[in-house]
C-alpha cells in the first residue's frame, strides 16, 4: 500500500476513536454518582464502536457518497467512515433539532440521504434493505454499490440469510460485512455460531466468502477492495467477515463481568498497533500522528459544540413526520 | 363516490381493476415495479397481477423466493432510493414472518429520519375468509396494521375503489398497506358478491385515501363497515327496506387515515350505530370506531352501539364453525334489528 493510503486509514480510525471517546465522556458526564440510563445530555442505550475502527475504515475507503451503507445498532464508525456529516450526526445522538432525524431517531437510527447511509437497531434486519438499494442501482444502470453491515450474532438470524440469498440470486451489487467481535452482548461466539468462519456460509449461496483475521485494517482494505470491485463490475455480492474487537462493553454501563479476556483487551487495541506498524515502515512520524489527533479533535469538539448549541425538539411537534 | 359522473366506464372485476391501475402507473412511471411470490407467470394467487409479466417483463414483475423478510426488506431499500415498489404479501396471515420489516422499518424510517427519507411503496395483501382456508389463511388483521403508526391502510370493497385507491397508493409518498378481500376480487373459483364486478372509470381515476363512501343512504341506523362486509350490509339493507328499516351503509375504504368525520356525521343523523368488522372484535377497529363516537359526543347515540365482528377465536376450518365466526348477513341483520329496537 502507498503511505498516503495507509495514513488515510490511520487518520480515519483516529477520527472514529476520538469521536467515540468524546461521546463516552459526554454520555457519562451527568450520569453519576448513580448510573441512570435515561438521564443526562445523551440518554438511552449507547453502543460504541471502539476497537472496530479497522472494519469501517477498510471498507469505506472504497466507497463514495453515492454508495449506500446500512449499519447496525453500533453504527458510529461506519457513519463517520462513510462521510456522514459529523455535526448533524452528533446532534442526533444528543436528540436535538439539528440532528439527522431532528431528534426522532437517536444513535441507533441515523439516516443520511446525502450519503445513502442508514442503520437499524434490529439485529440482521438492516441486511435486506441493502439488497433493495442494490436492486434500485442495478435498475438505473449505475455502478453504485450497497454495503450491509452486521455483527456475527446476526448470522444466525433469518434476515441475514434471506438477504444474502436474494442478493446472490439476483446477482446484486452488495457487499455483506460481518463484524465478528466475539460477543453477542454476553454470549460468546462459540455458544451461538456452529462454524468457525461465517465466510464458510457464503458457499451456501454460491458467492465468495472471505474472513479477515486479527482486526487487520490493511487486510480489510484489500478484501473489501476486491468485493466492492466485484460488485461494481456486476459480478454480484461477497460475504466478508472481519475478526474484530469490542474494546468496550456491549453498551455503556455494561460491566462485562461475563468476559474472561477483559484484562487482555486493551493490549489488542488496533490503533496503537497500526501506528506502530506504520512508524516501523516509515509511513508515520510524530508530526503526522499529532496532526491526525489534532484534526480529529477539532472536528469532534466542533460537532459536540454544535450538538449542545442545538435546541431540543418542541414537544408540540411530537406528531410530526409520522407521514410524509 | 369521488368519480366524475360523466367519465366513461367499463365493467371489470376487482382483480382486473387493480391490475389495470397498476399497469397504468407502470406505464406512467418507470420507478414502479412489482415483486412478490407468484406475481409473474401465475399472475398472483388471487389474480392481483395477472398479465403484468407479459406487458412489462421480468425486470419489472419479479417473482421472489419464499422469503418475505428478504423481499419486503428489499422493497423498502428500493423505495428509500426513490423507486416505487408494489410488493405482495400473498396472505396477510404471513405477516408473522416479516413484520419487523413492515412495522419497524417500512413504517418508521420516515419518522426516524425526521422526514428526510420517504418510503413510497405499496404492500398489497390478500385478506379474509369464508372458504374454509383455516386459521392461518383467513384472517383480516387490518386492525393490527392500523394500530402501528406510520403506514396507511386501505381496504377497498369494489372494483372502482380498488382501482382508484391503488392509483392513489402507488402515487403516495408513504407506505400504503393495500388489503384486498379474496371475496371481493370477483374470482371465478370462489363464491362472490355480484358487486365484485362493476363499472370502473376509464382514464385518470384516483380515490383519495382517507375518505369513506356512502353506498346507501338511510335515516334509521348507520352501519359502518369495510371490505366484503360492505356487500353483506348492503344486501341486508335491501332486505330490511321492505320491513320499513332505512339503513345507511358507510364503506370506510381506508382505516388509516380513518374518516371520523363521515362516521360522526352519519351517526349524528341516525342516532344508531352498528359496526361490522371481519377482524377480531377485541382491541381493534370496532372498538376504535365506538371510542371515537363516544369521545366526540356520546349524546349522539339513541341506542347502544352493536358490534358484529369475529368473536376472538381463530378462524375455524369447518364450514359450520367458520360461518359462526364470520360477520354473516344473518348476524348483521340481527344487530341492526337490535339497534333499531325491533
Q: Mind sketching the topology for me?
A:
The complex is a heterodimer of chains A (324) and B (342).
Chain A lengths: L2 H27 L23 H8 L7 E4 L4 H6 L4 H8 L23 E3 L7 H14 L5 E6 L6 H12 L4 E7 L2 E2 L2 E2 L20 E4 L4 H16 L5 E6 L26 H12 L4 H24 L15
Parallel strand pairs in A: 1-2, 1-3, 3-4, 4-8, 7-8
Antiparallel strand pairs in A: 5-6
Helix pairs in contact in A: 1-2, 1-8, 1-9, 2-7, 4-9, 5-6
Chain B lengths: L8 E5 H15 L3 E5 L15 H5 L4 E3 L4 H13 L3 E8 L7 H8 L2 H4 L9 E6 L14 H6 L4 E3 L4 H13 L4 E6 L15 E5 L11 E4 L4 E5 L2 H14 L5 E5 L2 E3 L3 H11 L2 E8 L4 H12 L9 E5 L8 H7 L3 H11 L3
Parallel strand pairs in B: 2-3, 2-4, 4-5, 5-7, 6-7, 10-11, 10-13, 13-14
Antiparallel strand pairs in B: 1-8, 6-12, 9-11
How would you describe this structure to a colleague?
The complex is a heterodimer of chains A (324) and B (342). The longest helix of chain A is centred in the first third of the chain and has 27 residues, at 3-29. Chain A is of the alpha/beta class and 324 residues long. Chain A has helices spanning 3-29, 53-60, 76-81, 86-93, 127-140, 158-169, 217-232, 270-281, 286-309, and strands spanning 68-71, 117-119, 146-151, 174-180, 183-184, 187-188, 209-212, 238-243. Chain A has a single domain, classed as Rossmann fold, CATH 3.40.50. Helix content of chain A is 39%, strand content 10%. The model of chain B has no long low-confidence stretch (mean pLDDT 97). Chain B has two domains: 10-201, Thiamin diphosphate (ThDP)-binding fold, Pyr/PP domains (Rossmann fold, 3-Layer(aba) Sandwich); 213-339, 3-Layer(aba) Sandwich (Rossmann fold). Chain B is of the alpha/beta class and 342 residues long. In chain B, α8 crosses α12 and α9 (260-270) packs across α10 (285-296). Chain B has a seven-stranded mixed beta sheet with strand order 3-2-4-5-7-6-12, sandwiched between helices. A five-stranded mixed beta sheet of chain B has the order 9-11-10-13-14, sandwiched between helices. A two-stranded antiparallel sheet of chain B has the order 1-8. Chain B is globular and about 60 Å long. Chain B has helices at residues 14-28, 52-56, 68-80, 99-106, 109-112, 142-147, 159-171, 228-241, 260-270, 285-296, 319-325, 329-339, and strands at 9-13, 32-36, 61-63, 84-91, 122-127, 152-154, 176-181, 197-201, 213-216, 221-225, 247-251, 254-256, 273-280, 306-310. Chain B has twelve helices and 14 strands.
